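Re: the 106-residue chain
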Amino acid sequence: MIALSGSQTKPSALPEVHDFILEGTNEVTGRAAPLYNLSGIMQHDPYSDRDGDGWAPGPAYEGTGFTEFLFMFKYPDDSDPAAQPALPADVWQRISDFFLRKILSP
């Protein structure tokens, strides 16, 4: 339910929680209130792993701050389980620079 930023919920998280609560409410009250169409929502959720390999594509925008570091691991093709994140050639330098900036910044 957490996005690549590590601190925000993914777009389908609230409907998932809503359905969980509503299912329990329906069971207790004997009602049949309709649930969200989660499959429709998840088709457009960039944090949904569509090919089941454990990687999610992530959003289309560029990351800043800590998300800049996390976005290096974005998944390029969520329709092919054999595809892997395409890390830049200087990935270790970028990681080092990122953490050095974090350590040295006030």
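The longest helix spans residues 13-29.
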